[in-house]
Design a protein that fits this description.
mainly alpha, 4 strands
């Protein structure tokens, strides 16, 4: 049996390079022109509508946002607004509160300022007017009385008939009700009751003129 002569170091290096070329996979056709994978952000509508979308618009969806612009949290609360609407019950600033706590304060802001508290982003999602989120035990009557809805519960129901359904006495917790604006829609008797008060105001100057001759 004849033995082959041992390989020199230079021959070993050449053999290794040839094997590497033979084993390496061929490049895929068009690999140099393959586009980069685009990672799309999560759909904000899959969260708690419309708060996750507002947060995405206001702060990029960062509920702990504090960029030094005097607005804090996912919904970019101005500090006085945070304090006036009960935010201090949760945290000193909005960015230190949880997402759920920020939404709770935002719902209070909706009752007083409406969606215009977030003008640009509300316009983007076509949100307008004041809104109330139904809580356990609330009725249309109690909501209308608390928020001083003109026209009472009837006006509140008419503005949300599609959302509430045919039974105004049955409210689902969590339903977002639009608070109607405008003049009262009740009977004309309300205007008649205001007339006597107007007459009393006109009588006051007469009493002042009677004092002038005494001077």
């Amino acid at each position: 049996m004849r033995l082959l002569p041992p390989l020199l170091p230079a021959s070993c290096a050449l053999l290794a390079s040839l094997l590497a070329v033979a084993v390496a996979p061929a490049p895929a056709l068009g690999a140099a022109h393959r586009p980069h994978t685009v990672v799309k952000p999560a759909d904000c509508t899959k969260g708690t509508w419309p708060w996750d979308c507002l947060a995405q618009c206001e702060s990029g969806g960062h509920w702990d946002a504090n960029t030094g612009n005097s607005y804090y949290g996912g919904l970019q609360f101005w500090q006085p607004t945070w304090e006036e609407h009960g935010g201090l019950a949760y945290a000193p600033r909005a960015d230190l509160a949880t997402r759920a706590e920020q939404i709770a304060v935002a719902e209070e802001v909706l009752r007083t300022q409406g969606w215009q508290a977030w003008p640009a982003c509300a316009k983007k999602y076509r949100l307008h007017g004041r809104v109330h989120r139904v809580k356990s035990g609330e009725t249309l009557t109690s909501i209308a009385r608390r928020l001083k809805v003109k026209g009472g519960w009837q006006a509140l129901y008419e503005a949300n008939r599609d959302m509430i359904g045919p039974h105004p006495d049955r409210l689902n917790v969590g339903t977002m009700l639009v608070i109607p604006e405008g003049r009262p829609t009740g009977p004309k008797k309300t205007a008649a009751k205001k007339r006597p008060a107007a007459k009393k105001k006109t009588a006051r100057p007469v009493a002042k003129t009677t004092r002038t001759p005494r001077r």
